[in-house]
Structure formats: structure tokens, C-alpha cells
Amino acid sequence: MKKNIAVLMGGYSSEFEISIKSGQVVYKHLDTDTYNAYQVIIAKEEWVCLDKDDTKYTINKDDFSATINNEKITFDCVFNTIHGTPGEDGHMQGYFALLNIPQTSCEMYQSALTFNKRDTLSVLKPYGINCAKSYYINKGDHIDENAIIETVGLPCFVKANKAGSSFGVSKVHQKEDLAKAIEVAFTEDDEILIESFLDGIEVSVGVINYNGKTLVLPPTEIVSENDFFDYEAKYLGKSQEITPARISECDIEAVSKEAKRIFEILQMSGFTRSDFIFHQGKPHFIEMNTTPGLSEESILPQQALCAGISLANLFGNAVEMALKK
């Protein structure tokens, strides 16, 4: 009997439309001989399930079900493609854990931890993971620009602590631009992370559960036409994403080992994509995404295809791993 799979997409953040694209790709590639896939769109205004004609049916939040043509549909598994809140910060993971519905992303604690860039760095640094120098500000704090520059130097990156797709991120070259960058970051979150600029090659590494084992995918080299890998570079064609990365076998081994180590330190599951910069010959960890982009042009699907894994196998495996948890 075919399993009912809810492909979860949308969310409450600026990444809503990006998540819809990811979810539609998963919906398209899930094997219809094995699964009954449903698009489930999560928005602040409503939670809805779409039938094959894209007619909307309200999700019953009490048990995460939908009544379609007078038939109650319940779900055997949820494929989570929400980027940002509430799908990447632990909220949906906790909800599904309470309902005892398997879902494809990591567990609630790991999701909440990695969505908070500052907390992730705090956990990893005692393990000797190389990271940029950092400075933290909360909304309402006194802002000491001299102290910031003394700590992280210039240029530096000002980031919203809990946001993705480079929303709320600015690269600051001069002190007089710092206040504006902080203001931009505060439009996305009430916590800010300011990091030193690391000069070097940027790579992104996917690590996934595949056939019951931890698999490191071929790393992707990021070459941005802009000053850094911002929203335009990620989604509007202003970058090259080269898989496998044009780095030495020694460097591939080093960054792959570090990505797997971080995956295991954080006790991750599902799909992850971690970003690194090779600075002074060593990979420095930047951040981890636990519901990375899954459109055909996104980095993790590129890496899977490079490793010989079709999108149907990639997505089907994620469902099967979730069902076996």
C-alpha cells in the first residue's frame, strides 16, 4: 500500500517563495508508484493541502490531516522543505514529534540549535572547529563601533543571527557603513552576529543520511560575481557553483572530513549543507543549513547528481530513512 507523504513548504519567513520552489521539485520527483505525495503549504494565514488540481483543503492542526472529497487523509511521513521558521528552527519538528509523524529533517533540538548561528558556533568551538572571529549584538544593546572593529576588523560581515538565503547580511568595508548594516540585519532578527572577513575559496558541502550511513557529497565551489554570496548570487544567477570544487584532493579530503565531523558532533540526521571558507590553508566553518534548497539548480541536488544519485533516489531515500527512525 502506498504511503501518503506531505511535502511541506512555505513558512513564515522571507524565504517563503524559495521554499515553494524546493517543495515543488520534491513533489515532482517522488516516485508515484511508491508514494501518494501531497503539497502542503504552511503560511501565517492558513495551512492548506493541495489536491492534484491544486484545489485547497484546510489542514486540521489537531492531527495534521486533510479532508479531500469527503475522505480524511492522514500522512505517514512529512518531507520538510521549509526554509526558515517554522520548519528550520525546530517548531515543526516538535509539532510532528508530538503527533508521532515521521519527518525528513533533523530533530527539534538540532534544528533549533543550527538555526541560531551564534549558538552553533558556541557548541562547535570547544571541539576545535575553525571559525571566524565574532561579535554579538541584541536589539536594544549599546552599539560600540570601535569595540566591534577592534574584535573582528574590517571588512566584516553583519548578519541576522536567525535567517537564511543571505537576508539581513551585509559586507562592511568602512566604519561609517556599520550602523546601516546593523539596521538592515535587525529587520530580519533581533539578534546579530558580526564576523571577521575570511579571505579564501568558499565551498559548500552536503552531508546526508543515505542508505543508513552518513554520506559526504562532493563539495561545491562558490564563485560570486558580487562582493559575497548574497541573495542575487544565490538565486538570480550572479554566481558560479562548480561541482566538484576546483580544489586539491587534499583540500577536498580536509573539508569533507570536517563537514562529517560537524554532522556527527551535532548528532544530525536528514539533509545538511555546511558552508566553509579555506582561509590560510584550512577550512573555516561558516554555518549549517538543515533544510537546504532542493530545486534542480540548488547546491545539494547538484552534489547528489555528481555523486550519481538521482533526485528520485535522493528524495525517496530521505522518506525511507525518516520512516525507519
In words, what does this structure look like?
This protein has helices spanning 16-29, 91-99, 108-115, 117-124, 145-152, 178-186, 231-235, 249-265, 299-306, 311-324; strands spanning 3-10, 35-42, 47-50, 56-60, 65-68, 71-73, 77-80, 134-138, 156-160, 170-172, 191-196, 201-210, 213-216, 220-224, 239-242, 271-279, 282-289. With 325 residues, it is of the alpha+beta class. It folds into three domains: 3-104, Rossmann fold, CATH 3.40.50; 113-130 and 199-324, 2-Layer Sandwich (D-amino Acid Aminotransferase, Chain A, domain 1), CATH 3.30.470.20; 134-196, ATP-grasp fold, A domain (Dna Ligase, domain 1, 2-Layer Sandwich). It has a seven-stranded mixed sheet. The longest helix has 17 residues, at 249-265. It is globular. The two termini are 20 Å apart.
- In angstroms, what is the radius of gyration? 20 Å
CATH class of the largest domain: Alpha Beta
What strand line-up does the widest sheet have?
6-5-4-3-2-1-7
Q: What do we call the CATH topology of the largest domain? A: D-amino Acid Aminotransferase, Chain A, domain 1
SS-derived structural category: alpha+beta
Indicate the proportion of strand residues.
25-35%
Give the H and E element order: EHEEEEEEHHHEHEEHEEEEHEHEEHH
In short:
The chain is α+β, with helices and mostly antiparallel strands and 325 residues long. It contains ten helices and 17 strands. It folds into three domains: 3-104, Rossmann fold, CATH 3.40.50.20; 113-130 and 199-324, ATP-grasp fold, B domain (D-amino Acid Aminotransferase, Chain A, domain 1, 2-Layer Sandwich), CATH 3.30.470.20; 134-196, Dna Ligase, domain 1.
